[in-house]
Design brief:
The complex is a heterodimer. By secondary structure, chain A is an alpha+beta fold. Chain A has two domains: 54 residues, no CATH class; 101 residues, Immunoglobulin-like. Helix content of chain A is 30%, strand content 37%. In chain A, strands 1, 2, 3, 4, 5, 6, 7, 8, 9, 10 and 11 form an eleven-stranded antiparallel β-sheet that branches. In chain A, a hairpin with a 5-residue loop joins strand 2 and strand 3. The longest helix of chain A has 36 residues. Chain A is elongated, with a radius of gyration of 29 Å. Chain B is α+β, with helices and mostly antiparallel strands. Chain B has two domains: 53 residues; 86 residues, Immunoglobulin-like (Sandwich). In chain B, strands 1, 2, 3, 4, 5, 6 and 7 form a seven-stranded antiparallel β-sheet that branches. In chain B, strand 1 and strand 2 form a beta hairpin. The longest helix of chain B is centred in the N-terminal third of the chain and has 36 residues. Classes of the chains: A alpha+beta, B alpha+beta. The interface between A and B is large, with 51 and 47 residues. Chain B: Keywords: Membrane, Transmembrane, Transmembrane helix. Chain B: This is DUF4352 domain-containing protein.
Chain lengths: 169, 148
């Protein structure tokens, strides 16, 4: 025997492995793989949700001063209202989101509302400035329509701008 | 050989036994890394989807006013008065706080929710801004609530 120590170990391990039944071998391979898979999945799940919350956490809300709900010619809701930036910094805001919920409290539709001053679309609100929003596009869950909406919730949020004009992130 | 399956297994064993110890370890480690990467990606995608879904079901409440004062730990306490201006009762999830100080460094904070507000009802929620007081800073708030 030229390398007793190493060969001995490998031999013992190999011998032990070869004495296991096929079922035991399969179990010994599958269980660690399931544990590794589960832990990786959980780590991914935590990191994925954390990355989304990091982006959302950087946002600040504009105040919704008032809003009214009308219907257009095809029966789709038109939600029109006014928002105000009540901070001492400018704020960038791309859309106001109007969320439609049904009687069971499920989100069934999302309305996208650009922000206007007069007839011009704007994306920046100075400190204290007001602007109008109006939904121009709706998407509904399959099987639901505007007639199923009993409650509208509004999210008007954007990014505060620092004095040098950078996003506050 | 009694069947095709035995033949395949036999060929696989034969192929495996012809690999060196180094190659076998490499194949096993690579397989585990690929498996972990695959499951991590699935989990990441699931996490992104669930966070977006959670956020989509939330909407904001009106902020009536807020005050900031020093707390005993050297940070700031923020007290925010919010109001439910909807026509249905809502459950308050919390208020996230963002902002920046005079050096334009970001600052963060959070106020925990919990109360259910009836239409028109107001409440005060206390939170913490993780910034030393006194400092010249700007904060932005975002309330989050869902239908009760």
């Amino acid at each position: 025997m030229s390398s007793d120590v190493d060969d001995g170990k490998t031999g013992r391990s190999s011998g032990w492995w070869s004495r296991r039944s096929t079922f035991t071998k399969a179990t010994l391979i599958i269980i660690p793989l399931l544990i590794v898979g589960f832990l990786s999945f959980m780590l991914g799940d935590i990191n994925g949700s954390s990355d989304v919350y990091d982006v959302l956490h950087d946002k600040a809300q504009a105040e919704v001063l008032n809003y009214t709900v009308l219907s257009d010619y095809s029966g789709y809701p038109v939600v029109r209202g006014e928002i105000q930036n009540r901070y001492s910094s400018a704020m960038q805001i791309d859309y106001v989101w109007v969320k439609g919920f049904n009687r069971d409290g499920d989100l069934i539709g999302m309305g996208r509302a650009p922000v206007f001053r007069g007839s011009s679309r704007i994306e920046t609100l100075g400190p204290g400035e007001r602007a109008y929003f109006e939904t121009t596009y709706w998407s509904f869950e399959d099987g639901y329509g505007p007639e199923d909406v009993v409650f509208f919730g509004i999210t008007a949020r954007g990014n505060l701008l620092t004095p040098s004009g950078k996003f506050c992130t | 050989m009694s069947s095709d399956d035995d033949g395949k297994t036999g060929r696989l064993r034969g192929w495996w036994s012809k690999r060196s110890s180094y190659s076998r370890k490499g194949i096993i480690i690579l397989g585990i890394i690929l498996w972990a990467y695959f499951t991590y990606s699935l989990g990441y995608s699931e996490g992104v989807d669930s966070a977006i879904e959670f956020d989509e079901e939330r909407f904001q409440l009106n902020i009536v006013n807020y005050t900031i004062s020093p707390d005993p730990d050297g940070f700031c306490t923020i007290t925010v008065e919010i109001q439910n201006n909807y026509e249905e009762p809502v459950s308050v999830d919390g208020i996230s706080i963002t902002g920046f100080n005079s050096r334009e460094d970001p600052l963060y904070g959070w106020a925990f929710g919990g109360p259910v507000l009836k239409p028109g009802e107001k409440t005060r929620i206390k939170g913490t801004i993780f910034e030393e007081h006194p400092q010249n800073f700007t904060v932005g708030l975002e309330t989050q609530a869902h239908i009760f």
